[in-house]
Amino acid sequence: MIVLRIHADPQEDAVLRANNTPQATTPWRPVTTEAEIAQRAGVPLTTWQRRYADAFRQLAPALFDVEDTRGLARLYDLAQAEEAQREVEAAQTEGREPDPAAVTALPGGQDDEDRLNAREAAVLLGIDPDAVYSLAAKGYLPQGEKVSTAEGKTIGRLTVWPRRVLVERRDNPPGQGAGGGRKPGSRPQTRKQPYEGDARLPIAAEALKQHTGLATNQIAADLAHTHGGSTRTWERLLTAARNPN
Fold this sequence. Notes:
Blueprint: E1 31-33, H1 34-41, H2 45-51, H3 53-59, E2 64-65, E3 74-77, H4 78-94, E4 115-116, H5 118-125, H6 129-137, E5 145-148, E6 154-162, H7 163-171, H8 200-210, H9 216-227, H10 231-242
Antiparallel strand pairs: 1-3, 2-3, 4-6, 5-6
Helix pairs in contact: 1-2, 3-4, 5-6, 8-10, 9-10
């Protein structure tokens, strides 16, 4: 499992903004997408995919794979991606195979500040991915964080949670004390519709914008494959996203 690692580097402070709140001080390593890599290489995305993608992906593993038809959501560490792109271009120019040693490996192991997506969170919690979003909607987990690239593109179909938050919830299940339930005196607010406040709604809304020509069941199947859960649940979420009131 590859996760987004929080890792401070003073030389990167100016570009550590893979966060949807630019004012935040959390030191994320900057991230990028294939669309941005192609743009920096000066070629259309389709040309980049044909010319470089296979070799590039061998050198730079995706942090998260939330791929869509425009290649916007396969996420990479920015520094590693830039090294990989330079090596792939050099190898093609020199007529040789790309050298993996030319690309710096990301930090290994696990860290409390690793960001996990819904599928990874579900594995850690021992529940279904649908239940991760349900816990967030009911207030038993934070709503999750959106991830933005170093160039400011928010990955609408990706929600992540810090490992430490998930471990705390796993070790203190709802209703079992030590922070396991809601805060004293707190009550769930009445929701106007069944999925109000669900962290998956923005993901569903973004998918509708990106796939205007696809049938709802096709979009739902794609979302279920990417994020987990059932196609039927995602169909309901897509309906809710279309009719927010």
